[in-house]
Amino acid sequence: MKLYKISLALLMGIGMLTSCSEKLDVTDPNRPTTDGFGSTAAELEESVIAMYNHIRMEGSFARVGYGNEICRGDEIWNCSQVWYQPIDDFNFPVEFPGAENNLPMWVWREWYYTINVCNFVLSKCGEDDSALNDQMKKIKGQALFIRGLSYYTLSGYFQNPILVTDYSSYASLDGLYAPNEEEGDEDVYAQYDRVLDQVEKDFSEAMALLPSRDEGGEWAKGRATCGAAAGYYARTLMQRHKYNEALTVLKAIIGGTYGHYELMADYGDNFQEGKYENNAESLFEVQFLDYGSQGTEDEWTPVNTNKNATQGHAIETNLAPGDVNGWCDLAAAPWLYELFKKERTTSGSLDPRLYWTIGTYEPEWEGYAYGNVCFTNVMTSDISTQFITNNNYGGLPVAKHTNLRTNLYSSVIQGLHCGVNLRMMRYSDVLLRAAECENEISGPTQQAIDWINQVRRRAQLKDLQLSDFGSKDKLFEQIANVERPKEFGCEFGRCFDLIRWGFFYSPDRMKQLKEHGTFRRSNDKTKMKEPVSYANIGSDAELKCSFDTYRAGHEYLPIVTYITNVNPNVKGNSANLDIDNSAYFSKKGWTVHPVVDLSK
Fold it and tell me: Which of 38, 162, 199, 344 fits a 20 to 30 Å CA distance from 151?
């Protein structure tokens, strides 16, 4: 009897094992689900591609996410006087009706789509970097860099965005509708500091995980590298006036710790397609397909998955003159044009950077690069052949990150069709930032002057002399309002600089911004290069100044009601509340450099 029971138990066990092994696997390999996705490095690589895809959408960098920033500075104005208008005027309304044409909302939306993908990837990587193989380290490093980039951008736009880093928190509604403040917060600045703490952490960790561009292959063709992470880490530190820490990082980049970088001999190599892209000067750029190699369908929002997507950007369309089929929304400030004309090269010529920044006719351009062209349309001394941006309000055409000067086509195709990669950080920025940090720490030094002169020599300008700069304030003025505008004029980031310098919080700096931000609304081409003065606004009806309508706190974009209605846990920022941020600036111990007359 005992033997029988043992035998029966064995048979039953074998039967159970057999039946388990014979169960039908009902998972359809042709219909993958989200459950379990990301369990392999190959699957996570697909998410990495999605991260890069999101930074080249409408609200991130492909149109308004870029345009919102460049028109908040003092180098560009809104020449359509419609699109971007309240952003250019620093008075965007909090109560903006609906989502249509709601430019701040699109920026918010796109970057949180990006953050969502980054958080998913990071949730699969774990906390222990030492446990990761080489491929997983690269995957994690890219996710950290792009999340850091996302929050760096959001903080520069919105001051106190929501901070979400845990992908699992989305499992509950509390996590999905996260707040942008914590219990005990007394003001919007607590969240601002938390966000930038996280940005510093993300970039710092990414620096240790990512390879340099010297590894070659895709790491020299657009992927985020340790050099990109180091550059943005230094930018973030400088945003908080941590000049000693930033200078250490910048010196390491200059010394080659994070890969080899150098200035391109030709400044124009930074603003053309094809072989010019991802060059030795580029720390990070947003990738777009070149002219003639794109799809045909514009993909404006992050939820589209059109297989025929154009893979280009619409910044060119925003900037291009109406007469070449552009949307003619943004034009270069007369101040910037005048700045270029003040100083000649050592051979007596115009600064070559003017050619690639502002699309004006100049007699000296006849034998330079592609000559006097505006999208292959030849300009001559005959004023009728020259271009203004907007047919009603005029404006000097912006050439940066467009094909205005590259001689590829005569008119633009409206929409997301420009293939010029956006160079978001260049080695010249590293050099000028290092000079700025050196000046903040030690005052004018020969080392600071030497870094500046490296950039000037590429433009064939004479060297600065240390003896001409007897104070920290004077060298700062040279960097902030001469060297940086001429090197980076009309590129992303000027308003971020104005905020960190405190220019909105000083009467003399605000007076200077008003001078820079004065422009003429006229379609008379003979007037487009005339100098303008803020002092004449009251007597000249054609003059206007963007900074005249600045409201306290509106150096940031408001968190519009469309966002707060969806998520009532989100509280407004200084723009929502019209808060003067100068108290926060001074409480940190930061000071605003006084305006210095460089002619003396």
Answer: 38
